[in-house]
Design goal:
Shape: elongated
Strand content: 15-25%
Number of helices: 24
Strand order of the largest sheet: 2-1-10-9-8-3-7-6-4-5
Largest sheet: 10 strands, mixed
Distance between the termini: 88 Å
Structural class: alpha/beta
Oligomer: single chain
């Protein structure tokens, strides 16, 4: 037997030498077995064993002693029990597995059906040893009264060509049927699928196997649809190469040996012809399938289909003796052996066995498919590399895991399904499956959920569970009103994409896979950004949608080469106006996953998702075209003991020494203490903290207050609640940046609701001189401060002074013209003398009036608009026309010194009375 075509010639030469030597010796000795003949024969046999990688110590002694028929010497090595696991069970000592199956197929005396598959230990699921040879008959060794089992290589090894004469076609079909029974009964049901095409029959040959059609283990094809069958096989070969064999493995067999997992079933295709040539185009396509099929688990069994291909093909030719006894001439490596085919199996027994296999397949499919079944074996967690992409199973079909791929060929994924269809469950399954196979240095996750919920919040530290997913760098939840956060993520991805592109250019490479090879010491993980209900990001006709669309098109188009992948999920994508006329965006989302009742996720004419049952999905790596459909069952990942246990184990393994992911919860305000701790200590001018920027880093929104014109801060809002929190955060953060007594604070609570916040702030500023001024003393204090500013301009002593005005517009009536002019002077000239105003105005119009008479908008260098419409803020940012509608806990922030346009900030959580 030769398993590689490259060794056929060498083995044939060996046998030729063997034939000549043995034949000459037998002729000279008149058939005697002299020592020289046996020695030469055994030497040749040892050479064959070495060529085949077999261990001579395990060869049946009866075979070694019967080397008088040179044609049989290298056909099959019968093995003893120690090596039986590596060979098909009929070659091993003991009862055959099929015989045991036949016995179990029938109910016992009590009428009970078999409860276990074959009832034998060591059942094969494709991950253990795979038989190299499959028995087709027996031969006799020389003159010894000893039958010798003869087999052919099949799965992963060779195709099989069976030819018959007019009188032996029935025996040929029986031989193929027996061979198929041995294959399908050896493995766990579902590991082998059989396709039958018979040019002469609608129902195909071997009707005893028909019970296998009940669960899809056998498919009988129309005799007129051979081109469609060959196209299906070609698609499978392409899919395996582009989605499964992506880590450098040459075949599914090599992948299984390396990983211990058989991820794809074997496909045995029986083509029953009539000894006439196929049409030329079908012949060429069949040749292509034969050449590429073995590496992808496709084995052809051709019955009376004449063809020649440059692929391993073993032949069995059936003939008939004069006495009417059929025999076969079998070729293993070039020489031929005359074989007595095994007798046909009883039709009733085959039918019962196939029913049993189908029943077990049904039970297996109902039993396999839990979340735990999706996880790799112990010791295999975190062992995968993301160099060539992310490849993980997310569900099961026919008891086998079905993988999705995020790589160069399918860079981004689009998931669709209406409410209640299992979209969140699928996303949790996908995230967990990725995390258990790839370590945090291979994969980083950025998770956003626009809908109101906390599905992704479990991946960040919580109040009850302090564990977190080490792969997650950002978790955003409840952001349906914070579309800017989605925009910030796209901006981050675009920036990271450019950073990686520059690094790749520096190493003279073009994509991430090459960069990782050129810079093995660098840290270049794959990035997967998952955005649930992403349509919210593009819901308005505004600047956010415009900027997000531009960024998305850039990241979707160029992110694949830099290892940045998008997973977008939505209930419906048809109404997103921003994508109309931009087909280049969704063209990049090659991977489509449609949940039950999903519309417009797959291609227009592909409605496969409309009739899906619950817990199922259509996975399609062909941009939604129908021929790429794979239907799978998604396990339940929402129950206790599933995702939470995975996270706990991963946290224990990877979390030490790593930073926690940033949690952005749109329903919660950031804590003042946390923001204060994040302020940079760079020794520069003091920074006033106003809130949190909506960005990936969760940065603090700050205003630098150097001794420069315009460095004042205004807060605009009709209500006191958020305004006093912003003022309190600004003043409180400034106090901590000076040594005790290093700055003066003047507090002016000019309305009753500001009295409590001002008193709280005075206590917070303990250690610094604090003066509280009420409404009736406001004019005198402002005029005194204006005089102080004038003195400082003339060279007087300068000391950091902060005037905090609560409801500054309330003082308009008491300030009168002299007091108003003094306030304008403080605003205009105070900052360059280290006097800064932090003021809250309840009316944007009154602030505008103040600034347009003796002052200007430039004198208020930074401002935050709260419950104020954008149209009212236009005077404070001329020409920028901010589009702003107030929303709780948010403000529109603009600092002339750092912003080109206003940006949204989050008001900090501060326990101000």
């Amino acid at each position: 037997m030769a398993r590689r075509t490259g060794r056929r010639e060498r083995i044939a030469e060996t046998f030729d030498d063997f034939h000549r030597a043995v034949g000459a010796a037998l002729g000279a000795a008149a058939g005697a077995r002299n020592t020289a003949v046996r020695a030469h024969a055994e030497a040749m046999f040892e050479m064959w064993l070495r060529n085949e990688g077999l261990d001579a110590a395990h060869v049946d002694p009866g075979l070694r002693g019967g080397l008088t028929n040179p044609a049989l010497a290298g056909v099959v090595a019968r093995v003893d029990a120690d090596r039986s696991a590596a060979f098909e069970p009929w070659l091993a000592t003991g009862p055959g597995r099929l015989a045991a199956l036949m016995e179990q197929a029938a109910p016992d005396a009590a009428g009970r059906e078999p409860e276990q598959w074959l009832g034998q230990p060591g059942k094969i699921d494709g991950t253990g040893p795979v038989p190299q040879l499959w028995r087709v008959g027996a031969a006799r060794i020389g003159q010894r009264e000893q039958d010798f089992p003869v087999g052919v290589p099949l799965l992963d090894e060779s195709h099989l060509q069976v030819t018959s004469t007019p009188g032996t076609r029935t025996q040929a079909e029986a031989l193929v049927e027996t061979l198929l029974m041995r294959v399908v009964s050896y493995f766990r049901p579902g590991m082998v699928a059989v396709h039958v095409w018979d040019v002469g029959q609608f129902t195909g040959a071997m009707p005893g196997l028909y019970p296998l059609t009940r669960t899809g283990l056998l498919t009988v094809h129309d005799p007129g649809r051979l081109p469609q069958l060959l196209e299906e096989l070609s698609d499978r070969i392409r899919r395996v190469h582009t989605r499964v064999l992506v880590d450098g493995h040459a075949s599914l067999q090599a992948l299984a040996e390396a990983t211990g997992v058989r991820s794809e079933p074997w496909i045995v295709v029986v083509l029953a012809g009539n000894r006439s040539a196929l049409p030329e185009e079908d012949h060429r396509q069949l040749q292509r399938v034969a050449r590429g099929g073995l590496a992808c688990g496709i084995q052809l069994v051709m019955l009376d289909v004449p063809m020649t291909v440059s692929a391993p093909v073993e032949t069995v030719s059936l003939k008939e003796t004069e006495a009417g006894v059929p025999y076969a001439v079998s070729s293993m490596t070039g020489p031929y052996a005359t074989v007595l085919p095994d007798p046909p199996l009883p039709r009733e027994a085959v039918t019962r066995a196939c029913h049993t296999i189908s029943d077990e397949h049904e039970r297996w499919r109902g039993r396999i498919g839990s979340f735990a079944d999706l996880l790799p074996a112990a010791g295999q967690w975190g062992r995968s590399t993301s160099v060539s992409g992310i490849h993980v199973p997310v569900g099961f079909a026919e008891g086998l895991p079905v993988q999705i791929a995020l790589d160069d060929a399918s860079p981004h994924a689009l998931i669709g399904g209406p409410s209640g269809s299992g979209k969140t469950n699928l996303l949790l399954t996908m995230i967990s499956s990725m995390a258990v196979r790839y370590g945090p240095d291979e994969l980083e996750l950025y998770l956003l959920d626009f809908k109101e919920g906390v599905s992704f919040a479990q991946f960040a530290p919580g109040r009850r569970d302090r564990t977190w997913l080490p792969h997650a760098r950002l978790v955003g939840v409840n952001i349906n009103t914070d579309r800017e956060f989605g925009l910030a993520l796209l901006q981050f991805l675009a920036d990271e994409m450019r950073r990686r592109a520059e690094a790749a250019k520096a190493h003279e490479v073009t994509k991430l896979e090459e960069l990782r090879a050129a810079d093995p010491e660098g840290r270049w993980p794959r990035i997967v950004a998952v955005i649930d209900e992403f349509q919210y990001l593009f819901a308005e006709r505004d600047a956010v949608t415009k900027a997000a669309t531009t960024l998305l098109e850039d990241v979707a188009r160029r992110g694949r080469s830099q290892g940045i992948h998008l997973v977008f999920a939505s209930q419906d994508v048809s109404g997103i106006e921003a994508f109309w006329g931009r087909p280049a965006i969704f063209e990049q989302f090659v991977l489509r996953i449609a949940l039950p009742r999903a519309r417009r996720v797959l291609a227009d004419l592909n409605d496969a998702a409309l009739d899906l049952p619950r817990w199922h999905a259509v996975v399609n790596h062909e941009s939604g075209i129908r021929h790429g459909n794979e239907i799978l069952r998604v396990p339940d990942a929402t129950g206790k003991g599933s995702v939470d246990e995975v996270q706990r184990a991963l946290h224990e393994a990877y979390a030490p020494g790593r930073t926690e992911p940033l949690l952005f919860d749109g329903a919660r305000a950031p804590r003042f203490a946390d923001l204060l701790a994040s302020l940079p200590r760079d020794g520069g001018p003091p920074r006033a903290l106003l809130g949190q920027v909506i960005d990936v880093a969760g940065s603090a929104a700050t205003v630098r207050l150097p001794t420069a014109p315009g460095r004042n801060i205004g807060v605009l809002g009709a209500g006191a609640g958020e305004a006093v929190r912003v003022l309190g955060a600004a003043a409180g953060s400034l106090a901590g940046q000076f040594p005790p007594g290093g700055a003066d604070f003047v507090l002016a609570p000019l309305v009753p609701e500001a009295a409590g916040p001002a008193a709280w702030l005075a206590d917070t500023l303990a250690g610094h001189p604090v003066q509280t001024v009420l409404l009736d003393g406001m004019r005198a204090r402002i005029e005194a401060l204006a005089a102080d500013v004038t003195a400082r301009l003339a060279g007087g002593e300068r000391r950091p002074t902060f005037l905090v005005l609560y409801a500054a517009d309330a003082a308009d009536a008491v300030l009168e013209r002299p007091g108003t002019e003094a306030l304008r002077q403080v605003l205009r000239f105070g900052p360059e003398t280290d006097v800064h105003v932090l003021g809250w105005w309840r009316s944007a119009q009154r602030l505008k009036t103040l600034l347009t008479m003796g002052a200007s908008a430039d004198d208020l260098g930074a401002w935050v608009g709260l419950d104020v419409q954008g149209s009212e803020l236009g005077a404070l940012a001329p020409g920028l026309l901010p589009a702003w509608s107030p929303r709780p806990g948010r403000g529109l922030f603009f600092d002339r010194a750092q912003h080109a346009r206003p940006e949204v900030v989050i008001v900090p959580e501060l326990e101000v009375p």
